[in-house]
Amino acid sequence: MTLPSVGRAELNLELKDGVIEPLPFAVPDFVAENGGAGEYASQIARVVAADLTGTGLFREIPKNAFISNITNFNSPVQYADWKAINAQALIVGAVTMGSGGRLTVKFRLFDVFSGAPLGEGLQFGGTTKSWRRMAHKVADAAYSRITGEGPYFDSRVVFVSETGPKNARQKRLAIMDYDGANVQYLTDSRSIVLAPRFSPTGDRVLYTSYETGFPKIYVLDVATVGRRVLADQPGTMTFAPRFSPDGQTVVYSLSRGGNTDIYKMSVSSGNPVRLTSEPSIETAPSFSPDGKQIVFESDRSGNQQLYVMSANGGEARRISFGKGRYGTPVWSPRGDLVAFTKQNKGRFHIGVMRLDGSEERLLTASFLDEGPTWSPNGRVIMFMRETAGAGGSSSLYSVDISGRNLKRVKTPGGASDPAWSPLLK
Question: Quick check: 397 and 173 in contact, CB under 8 A?
Answer without folding.
Answer: no
